[in-house]
Structures are given as structure tokens and as C-alpha cells.
From TrEMBL:
Function, in words: Forms part of the polypeptide exit tunnel.
Keyword Transcription attached: no
Name by which UniProt lists this protein: Large ribosomal subunit protein uL4
One GO cellular component, as annotated: ribosome
Pfam families from the UniProt entry: Ribosomal_L4
Amino acid sequence: MKVKVQKLDGKAAGDVELNDAVFGVEPRADILHRVVTWQLENRRGTARPTRERSDVARTGKKFGRQKGSGGARHGDRGAPIFIGGGKAHGARKRDFDPSLNKKIRALGLRMALSSKAKDGLVVVDSLDLKDAKTKAVAETFGKNGWSGKVLVIDGDAVNEGFRKAAGNLKGVNVLPAVGANVYDILKHDTLVLTKDAVEKLEARFNG
């Protein structure tokens, strides 16, 4: 698949041949759904559980008489009504640790890239801006027609000035190629890849 390459100022910068094994895969909704669900569940933190009656380190020895005290009958200091006792109906541990085959994860990423290659993929030569300020980046994006949610993927090292400037724009995110994932790719309207990022992504699957 051949795609036109452009500079950040919108001028043409030749063509690039995309690997069909990475950017030409027919997307499947079930695979994409499985990978996105797996990624979102991995982002969820484990809920901290409270200690219930059976979890607290208190004595189980009967501490008072059965009769004659004028109080209720108790035989365990771990009961919820006592200070230091367990919490009644407390939060339970919810551990989100799903598993997904590595081949399915890789296939999902290739399908996400392929879906953007059909519609919404832009390849630029680099992210070099003489003035990496928010205003300059906003003008560049507007000139190129990149509106809505835009995801920019650079090589291994993202230019820090460009990342900070683009991060001030609404709906714009910048990631390194090693951080490319299905959820972020699909939720953005436009995917902007540098030539370096294209090489890194293709090498990721060929290696």
C-alpha cells in the first residue's frame, strides 16, 4: 500500500510503501472488541478491600461471662461492633487481571492500524518545528485539516517540546511508537504517523 508523505507545513514529501501485513489487514469487530476490553481492564486498579470479621487479628477467646453482666452475649472481639473489629459489609477485593493471547493482541493492533490506513491515516516525514509552541502547533494542525481527536505517533523518542505544545490542544495526544495501542488508535479521528514510527511499527511485527 502506497501512501503520500507530507511535511508538517502540508507540502508533499514523496511516498512511502506501507507493509500490507501491518497496514492492510481486514479489521474484525470481535478481535478489536476483545483487545480493547483487555486493555481497559488492565488500566483498572485493584479495589482495596476492607478487613472483615475473619480478617482482623483479634482473640477468639470468650472475654466475659455468659450471664450476669447486664450486657449482650459476646464471644469474639473481632465482631464489627467493637473498636478494632472487622468491618461489616465492607468493600470486597475486585482484581482485574484478564489474560489475552499475544497473537490476538498483535492482530488487534494490526487491525486498528489497517482501519486507520483505509480512512484517517496521515504520514509525515518528521515532527520538527522551528517554533514548537502551542500556537504554532495549532496553526499547523489547522492548516493541514487535522481536526477533532488527533493521535500523533512518533518514533521511540518523542520531541519533548512538540509533545508539551500539542498536549495543550484539545483532543490531541502524542505517543511514542512503543506505546501505540488499539484503544488510543481507534478512539481518535485522525492518526498521524512519522516515517520513523512507520518503520518502528513494521519492525515490531517483523521482528
